[in-house]
Structures are given as structure tokens and as C-alpha cells.
Amino acid sequence: MESWPPGGSGPAEAGRRLRGLRGADLAASASLLSGAGAEAGCSAPAVAAVLPAGGSGERMGVPTPKQFCPILERPLISYTLQALERVSWIKDIVVAVTGENMEAMKCIIQRYQHKGISLVESGVTRHRSIFNGLKALAEDQPNCRLSKPEVVIIHDAVRPFVEEDVLLKVVTAAKEHGAAGAIRPLVSTVISPSVDGCLDHSLERARHRASEMPQAFLFDVIYEAYQQCSDYDLEFGTECLHLALKYCHIKAKLIEGSPDLWKVTYKRDLYAAESIIKERISQQICVVMDTKEDEEHVGHRLEEMLKNELNVQFLDYESVPFGQKMENLMQIREFAKQVKKRNILLYGLLVYYPQDEQKLQESLRQGATIIAALIKERNSGLIGQLLVA
Amino acid sequence: MESWPPGGSGPAEAGRRLRGLRGADLAASASLLSGAGAEAGCSAPAVAAVLPAGGSGERMGVPTPKQFCPILERPLISYTLQALERVSWIKDIVVAVTGENMEAMKCIIQRYQHKGISLVESGVTRHRSIFNGLKALAEDQPNCRLSKPEVVIIHDAVRPFVEEDVLLKVVTAAKEHGAAGAIRPLVSTVISPSVDGCLDHSLERARHRASEMPQAFLFDVIYEAYQQCSDYDLEFGTECLHLALKYCHIKAKLIEGSPDLWKVTYKRDLYAAESIIKERISQQICVVMDTKEDEEHVGHRLEEMLKNELNVQFLDYESVPFGQKMENLMQIREFAKQVKKRNILLYGLLVYYPQDEQKLQESLRQGATIIAALIKERNSGLIGQLLVA
């Protein structure tokens, strides 16, 4: 099982990035974006992103802030950074973290080889953190290596599944309207309570939407809004689109987003994110056989059976001559430990194939079940084990 | 690993039910509820529940309606029914399903031995389905084996983690106020779009809540509301509390619910539900050793290591004398197949323990990792395998 390579981008990745938008459209719009910078006659990046990541994660019910919670041993925020980094036309990413987590964040950037990230200290509220990120991008800051972008994306560190198409849509709409944001239909009815804790009124669900991320703004619009806005807004507000409306009279364009944009908020969301990531990264399988002649006989039949169960790409068949039995076992375990460092999970499977066709069928089915289980669960605790079908 | 027994209710279950409310409070309130029926001088049930389950699950992006989606091979609705059945003071549960799914629902009831369930045909909308459920409970229906409850709970088939304490709270509040419902803080800001797809205004998040389930009503209140309400309400409305307010002028009491009350809506919610269920059911482990003398030496040290990783109750140590090696393997696989039918997952683990203390420590740690992985993933594809630590 191959890993989702940090920083790497094969054809499968490119395909995933383009999902949901026709390739031609995306290419045309992306070139439009790059073109805008060129027209203005400057080499400054047209688009930057700000990620507030100063939250404490109190709703999660765990001591680690949710953006740093590990998913398959990797912090959530690293997946989000990866999703943004893959978009070639986002030139700078500014992450706002607490002073306390600054060192941890630097380690994450180094460990997962993130590029083009600048760190700023977060404020005590979400709006103050975003404002700090914007200040770092503004031209009037002394000794700043960043340059002012034309459009700035604001995204959450805890929404790791953002796709290029929705980023492009909000950026394009922001260039036209001054502001834009992703929305989703409401899952629950929204109500307004009275002071005594009883229902005052309920809102018609069809007439309202949940405001999600990413959002994008002409930089001058949102920076102006933050400079104008009241302490009350900075302290208790949560919605950037609201600030653009209130202080710059910009009515943001609303863009329908995909369900994957949801915010990792509760512990159950971590479970869901883990399952989605497992599903995405375990799409390639490499079968290593011990003799060439068995390849077609067993390998291809196993492949057919697995295709019904999983959306898996068979990378390759390798033929490796194994030695004596006990040595095999030790060989597999040692090899598994080595390749685990490259995020490849290796398991041994001994397929028993008798002459009897019915028994062989049963044995292969058992093998397929075991392989499917290992791929789905992506369980690193079981690497190097020799399983028997 | 023991199963979450269908219909069974051990001390661990009772403990879980009482979570979040002190036992004495719960007992007192529960007896208050039973008392109400007795005072009225009738043996009729005081509380019934209606579950609309006619949805098509189109948001899930899968062909099976979400309430019938399997989680660990069992349909989601069966977990929800189990959660309601465990509450002794809920006498009847009326489930509204489409004619198309009526037979499937009957099979689920039989397969998982659900008791006290009545089925009615759902309507084309949520409100029409609930109304059909209420009609079945109303006294004026001919040939009906159900009796009219004093209070009716309305819950969703796709919220499987409802606890007794919140059910009790909404029922108690409904008796006092006429209507009550669970609420949760909003995760996202709610906005109102204008007709051109731009932001009209955003709602202050702190002043609004998401209306969740369960809700409870004096039966006469909600039945009256449904009898009075317009076709427009039945067709496009989604909120029962709104109907009680609009047609009976009852301001529902709002009860803060736990995050676990969320509605399984998207595919990611199925993943989250599966992880939560795995976590809940895999809390008991039975270690079977092959020789008595090793019990303390290895078993207890393994137990200590596992306690750091998992919240697991060690049920028992059993000593089973195994025979020859190959026979062991076959014995384990055959036995695993047998006990799988009782929802017990059995795996073999060969712990290599050398004299060298450091190597032993490493071997035990490896064993603990494997056991933890098996418990966490609850993977039935790997039952009967002999793993090596």
C-alpha cells in the first residue's frame, strides 16, 4: 500500500485535484489567475492564504488542540497544508498559531517538508488571529518577506479536504465581487431561544445556509474591514463575510461547496477524517509473489476478487524467491519494519491452494477478505505478520 | 472481545445508560414518570416514541437509505431501536417506513429481536411520516393495538447514540411545558442568501442553536398541531417544535444535548458512527493462555501494557492446553468461525518470550500493539489468524 506522498504529486493526485470541475475549465481559470498578476506587471503572488490555527479545541474533549490531533500518526493541520500547497497558484500560506505551539508547528513543517509557510502568532480570538495573518501580508509591515497579494484565501486548519476546484471558485468570485465564501445546506433547523430557555422562533431551513470555508477576498477589502472593525467584532464575531459586508458594503458571492468541506470539531469528526484519509491513501497495492508460475494462476484471480470489494489499483507483481519457512517470517518482519519508515505497510499472506477447485476458490476468497481488511484498516500494528488464507 | 448484546443489558450497559445524570436523579425522575400512569388509574403506557424512517438518504451519496446502511454488518436503525428499547419506561415504538422497505424492516426486527415495535407506512415527507406514526397511537384509530400515550417522543432513525438521560429530560420537560427538544450550539455561522446568490445577512452564532432530536410532546398537543397544520407545513416543514408553537402556542423547552446526538447524514457520519460503535463494543477482552504457569508472567504484564493504550476490561484468563502446532492453527480458525456467529472475534497470538529481559519486554510490547490494533479495528476479516509477537 503506497502512501499519500508528502509533497509528491503523481497523475492520480492531479486527477483527484481536478475532480468536480472539468479539466479545461480549471486550466483556463487558473491561467486567468496567473495572467492577472502578469498584467499588473509585477511578479508578486496574486493569491495567498491565511489559516487561523490558534484554537484550543475545547469542543473536542481532548487535551490536544484539534488541529494538532494525529490522524494516522500525522497532525491534522499537515493534511490541510498539503491540500493548499498542491495548488500551484497559492504563493504564500500564513499560519497563525499560539506562542505555545510555535515550536511544534515548526517541527511539523520540517517533518512533512511543507513549503512556502510563514508563521505568525495567533490572537486570543479567531478574528484577531486572521487579522495578524493579514497584517503579515500587508505591504506596510517592516522587514516582511511576504508581499501583498491581490486576493487572500481564508481557510480553517481543521478542514483538511479542501479541493482546488472550490478554492479556484471562491478566488475567481472574490476577484469579481470583492468577497466570496463556500456554503452548505443546513443539516438541522436553526432556532432562536428566548431568555428563559424556551423556543422563541425557528428559521425556515430552506432559506438559510451554513457558512463554511474557504472564503476569499480582495486583500484590500478584507484588510480594510479588519482595520475598521470594532473590538466587539474582534472579540465575539466569527464571520469574515459579515465584516466585509458591515465595513466595506461588499455582498459576498456564495459558492456551493462539497460535503467534504466540513470542519473537524468533535472527536467523531477525527474518526471520520481518519476513515476518509485511509480510503484515499490506500488505493494502490503491490503484490509480491514467491514464484513466477503462480502469478497468473493465483494473482490474477485474487485481483478479480478484490476488484469487486475495493477501488484499488494493482501497482505491480514482483517475484521474490523466499528461503526456508522460519527465515521467511523473520525476513518479512524485518523488511516490514524498514519500509514502514517510507509509509508503506507490508504484510505476508500465505495462500493455500489445493487441487480441488472448490477449496481453491474458498482459499482465494479468504485471501481476498484478508487483503481487503488490511487495506481498509491500514493497521500499522499488524505489519510484518504472516497471515494464512 | 464481547459484543454489545442485542437486547441484553449487563451492569456495564446500565452504567452507560446512566452516564451524564446522577443515578439517584434518574431513578427519582423515572419513578415519577411511571407514577403518572398509575395516578391516572390506567395501565396504558405513559410514553411512546415515533421514529420517521422513510427517508431516501440522497445526501449520503449511496443507494441504500442511510437508516438501513450497515455498520459492522448491522443496519443503523437497529442501533437506534436498541437505544430506545433499553429505556424501560418507553412502552411503544412506532417506526414509519416506506411500503418498499416494510419487509426489510420486519426482517431487521426479527433478526435483532427488537421488541415493542409497530410499523406504519411513511408519508412522502418527514412531517407526513410522523403524522402517520401519531395517528397509529391516537385512540380514535379502529382496530389499533396501541394505546394513546401521555407523552410522545419523536426521534430520528439515524441518531443511534441517544442516551436515557436526554430522553428523560425532554420527556420531563414536555410534561411541564407541553413540548421540549434537544439543542446543540451551532458549528458554523448561519447566513441568509439573497436571490442573486450573494450574502444578504449573517446570523449571530451565539444567539442561535441547532435544533436536534429527541423531542417530546404531550401527545394531545402535537397531535392537535398535526391535525391543524397546513399542507404547506406538511410538505415543506421540518420542525415539530415549530408546529407546536404555530398551532398550539406552546413554547417548547430547549434542552442542551450531547454531541453524540448528531444526525448521520453524510458518508463520513457512517464512518464516525462505526468508530464510535467499535469503541463502545470492544471494551471486554478475554485472554486464553496455553499453560497455567505463564499466566502471571506474561498475561499480567501484557495486561498492564494494554491498560495504558486501551480502556479495556479483562474478562478472564482461561487455560487451554493446545496440541501440535499445525493443529493449533486449524483449531483456532475453526473455533473462530464458530464464535463469530455469537459476535465474538477470536484471534491467535503467539508471544515469543526469551530469557533476556529486554527482548522479552520488546516481545510483550509488540504483543500489546497487536492486541490493541485488533481490538480497535474489530476486523472480522482477520479472525482465526495466528499472529506472532
Which oligomeric state applies?
homodimer
Question: Which runs of chain A of at least 5 residues are low in confidence (pLDDT < 50)?
Answer: 1-24, 35-45
- Beta strands of chain A, count: 15
Radius of gyration of chain A: 25 Å
Q: How do the SSEs of chain A run, as a string of H and E?
A: HHEEEHEHEHEHEEEEHHHEHEHEHEHE
Q: Kindly state the mean pLDDT of chain A as a whole number?
A: 82
Which pair of chains has the greatest number of interface residues, and how are they split between the two chains? A-B, 70 and 70 residues
- Order of strands side by side in the largest beta sheet of chain A? 5-4-1-6-10-7-11
Query: First CA to last CA of chain A: what distance?
Result: 19 Å
Strand content of chain A: 15-25%
How would you sum up the global shape of chain A? elongated
Reported for the largest beta sheet of chain A, the result is: 7 strands, mixed
Helicity of chain A, as a percent range: 40-55%
Structural class of chain A: alpha/beta
Helical region count of chain A?
13
What topology does this entry show?
The structure is a homodimer of 389-residue chains.
Chain A: H1 11-18, H2 23-39, E1 47-52, E2 70-71, E3 74-75, H3 76-85, E4 90-97, H4 102-111, E5 117-121, H5 126-137, E6 151-154, H6 164-177, E7 179-185, E8 189-193, E9 199-202, E10 209-218, H7 219-228, H8 231-236, H9 240-248, E11 253-256, H10 267-281, E12 284-289, H11 294-309, E13 313-319, H12 325-340, E14 348-350, H13 357-377, E15 386-388
